[in-house]
Amino acid sequence: MFSKKLKWWQSGAVYQVYPKSFLDTDGSGTGDIKGITSKLDYLHGLGVNAVWITPVYPSPMVDNGYDISDYTAIGENFGTMNDFDELMREAGRRGIKIVMDLVFNHCSDKHKWFRESKSSRNNPKSDWFIWRDPKPNGEPPTNWRSIFGGSAWEFSHERQQYYLHTFAKEQPDLNWANPEVRYALYDAAKFWLDKGVGGFRVDAITYIKKPEVFADGKPDAEDGTVNVHTMTANQPGILDYLHEFKREVEGDNDIFTVGEANGVKADELALWVGEEGVFDMLFEFSHVTLPLGKAEIWCHPVDWKLTDLKRAISDSQKATETNGWYPVFFENHDQPRSVNHFFTEGADPVKAAKVLGAVLLTMRGTPFIYQGEELGMTNYDWRTIDEVDDIQTKGQYELALKEGFTPEEAMKFVRYFTRDNARTPMQWTAGKNAGFTAGESWLPVNKNHITVNAETEMRDSKSVLSWYKRLLELRRTNHVLTMGSYREILTDSEEVFAFVREYEGHEVVTAANFSMNAVKLPESLTGRKVILSNEKEIDMEELKPLEARIYQ
Ligand code: GLC
Asked: CA neighbours within 13 Å on the CB side: how many for 176?
């Protein structure tokens, strides 16, 4: 059932870098490519074999690079193409592949394609974007609300028409129905393939196919709008485009692709991944969007139950058991820090980070570690909306006020869920600005950098960083962790996440106690040999609060 030969990206681990917040080498206050290159030894020492960098292309940076104005160049704020080539060379010398981010649903309104498209109704690129006439009363064509808040339509005086933007108005959606658009995008991907990149993360891919008919939807907000996601995500026929993408871009290249597929459910995964599917892996979000229902984004994160998390992961494991491969992740640049997401205040953040690390790095699939996760970085203590930079947070804050929440209530949401929680500077040292920049940092630095930082943790065998290194080493040397099957045990427990990995008669078992109570262990575990624990003293009968243990 399990292929004996794993591909390089199936047996390895990926590290995600958010370049703007990783390391600044020129004192500008924002990170750059040279900063990534200078930390390759650190990443090599950690034990990853691929680094996914979020967009470093030219961009007005309205959405921090996800608004691209040139697909085949490097943004000045990040450095030069020479810097990129050097990064590729130096990474290659250490056996690390660089993975690029393809943002193909939309580009920047400053991209020459859009400027041309906007200039008239009959220029050669006039239908490269999604243009529609106003309603007879001049209003936008539909009541769709963009994901970042406000109408999903923006009026252009030149054309006297509206264009669609799923995200910010500075991110017009490209028209995938036009083959010229699709092939221009594939050419951009090929440019980076020619440079030898190891793969692509493909952004916001569920939005590329638009519905046949554009109609108003049932409002889900006080202002009469409906989230564009409800109306356009995952349209029938989307996979046809993506099969073409796979043929044209992946072909026989020894790369991996991972799609960001908001809205795809576990039972649909088989269509999206594997031999018959379109990507090698798919990021779906069922396990990180846990508090469900209308109150989703306003909820306090303690509302979720451990069994929800376990079920979400186990369902996706099942769906990719014989077909495709699973990207394991708890964090990325859009999520709050996982320690805050999955634990209540009062939980020891170091132990909590190790509990999550144990699950992340012993699960079946390819682990994706987000910068700082390996240090146990936590959310920043946001006080006012002015401290926040993120365009989405600002839009949702406004929406919350419109919905009748008080500014204090809206701030409560911001504190837990702002994407800037993941974007505060990487904590390298206990020194000024956590060693991130010699200039003025673009986002505040978390005060806990005094103890939570790479330099200090490197010297401490009990740090989160040392725990990650040990687990990654175990993964490299114990084939059960890469090749083995996955079976959840203690399924009903609201305290312990436990699972068995099995390969050719050998087993590795993970038991991670997410609770602040000691938990009695079943007999099936008490007789096993413990190979790793985040506690010094081991009681074979029970797990200590926030103890994570790996058995053979
Ligand atoms: C994806 C990215 C996010 C970005 C959005 C629009 O969800 O991860 O950061 O804002 O797409 O490109």
From this structure: 23
Domains, the chain, in order of start with CATH, read: 11-103+327-382+418-477 (3.20.20.80), 483-551 (2.60.40.1180)
> Which residues in 226-283 belong to E strands, given as ranges?
226-227, 256-260, 281-283
Are 46 and 472 within 8 A, CB to CB? Answer: yes
**Segment 37-94, tens digit of pLDDT:** 999 999 999 999 999 999 999 999 999 999 999 999 999 999 999 999 999 999 999 9
Distance 148 CA to ligand 1 centre (A): 10
Report the relative pairing of strands 496-503 and 519-520 from DSSP bridges: unpaired
> Is 203 one of the annotated active-site residues of the chain?
yes
Residue 295 has pLDDT above 70, yes or no: no
What is the maximum alpha-carbon separation in the chain? 75
Average pLDDT, the chain: 94
Alpha helices in 2-141 (DSSP H): 8-11, 33-38, 40-46, 81-93, 112-119
Burial of 89 by CB count in 10 Å (0-12 exposed, 13-18 middle, 19+ buried)? exposed
In this prediction, residues 171-188 reach a mean pLDDT of 98
Name which residue sits closest to atom 2 of ligand 1, judged by CA.
203
Residue 410's alpha-carbon distances to 387, 394, 417, in angstroms, are: 14, 10, 11
Taking 90 as the threshold, does the pLDDT of residue 288 lie above it? no
CB 490 within 8 A of CB 523: no
pLDDT (0 to 100) of residue 4? 65
The pLDDT score that the predictor gives to residue 291 is 55
For the question of residue 248 being annotated catalytic, the response is: no
Residue 303: φ, ψ to 5°: -70, -15
For 400-441, the pLDDT digits (tens) are: 898 888 999 889 888 888 999 999 999 999 999 999 999 999
The pLDDT value recorded for residue 346 is 86
C-alpha dihedral sign at 175, 71, 390, 202? positive
**Gyration radius (Cα) of the chain, Å:** 23
Between CA 311 and CA 307 the distance in angstroms is: 6
Distance 327 CA to ligand 1 centre (A): 18
Between CA 146 and CA 55 the distance in angstroms is 21
**Cα 334 to averaged position of ligand 1 atoms, centre (Å):** 7
Residues 531, 533: Cα–Cα separation, whole Å: 7
